[in-house]
Amino acid sequence: MKFGILTGGGDCPGMNAFIRAVVRTTLNARPQTSVWGVVDGWKGLLDNNFSRLNKLDVAGLTSRGGTILGTTRVPELATDMDLQETLARNLHDNGFNYLFVCGGNGSLKASNALNTIARREGLRTKFLVSPGSIDNDVCNTTGSSIGFYSALDKSLEMLEWIRDTASSHRRLYLVRSMGRKSAYLALYSGIASGAEYVIMPNEDVDYEHVATVIAERDKDTRIIVSESYPKSLDEIRTTLESIFAHRGIKREVRSVDMGYFQRGGKTSVTDILRASWIGYRMVQDAFNGCESGFYTAYYTGHSPAPMPLEEAAADEASYDSIPQEFIDFALALR
What we know:
Elements: E1 2-8, H1 15-29, E2 34-38, H2 41-46, E3 50-53, H3 81-93, E4 98-103, H4 105-121, E5 126-131, H5 148-169, E6 171-177, H6 184-193, E7 197-199, H7 207-215, E8 221-226, H8 233-247, E9 252-257, H9 269-287, E10 293-294, H10 309-312, H11 324-332
Parallel strand pairs: 1-2, 1-4, 4-5, 5-10, 6-8, 6-9, 7-8
Antiparallel strand pairs: 2-3
Helix pairs in contact: 1-9, 3-4, 5-6, 7-8
């Protein structure tokens, strides 16, 4: 058998642990199986750029951030059916029985498109996909994305630094969080750090209420702003300062964007274990001749049945908005 590994869409902590798990599980169980990394993600698949991997190649990778294989987006893959056909043929012609993919929504949809072509045309390659995204926005009704808890760790650390400065200077900090259209990273960061308010992507914000929340704080206040909330930090700052001036609230307002600091660095133990567990499950299933599917987990040892790729790739397979019970949970802890 011949296996391929592709990390797609964007790098996130846990991808290297996933790569290591697939390589080690495969070669320890069946050394005659060859494992190849697709260099630079979907672009590498287009260029037939593959690198054979052995156990030493993946030594010491568990906590390392990013991806040793690299990842380069190919935006036209989403709509170019000829390009999709080329990539599906490349995998077949190179003799790959399975492609193990860790990536975001774009990688999931691309895998589904290639799988549809492969099944229709009788090509050999099957696709096993896991979610890799700090935004936790990849088919998140059945598990959480690899990289999400690592990003939470980074967010919590930065928010504690910001608290130290905010407390010393009695400041209000507006903190932008990554997350794309999803508010999971912002909300969970707010819960974990004890932030006073989290502005959700589509929220109709009552800034008078936010100002009251701020006024009730003695020294330090942090308001976390989801990435896709349409107003900039400067616009939010101007709105709040106007309310403060009208109500006689004395607060110095600063802003900071946590940005790309959330996605890099050391991988959390939670992501290492889940990425390794999912990679292990995929290899075991591949050796048993499984069909293509989407794999996820909420925790190490969690084994929900793989989801058909076409179902996982459907837009309705993910929560774009936070379930109300999570919001109630956050409000109860304020």
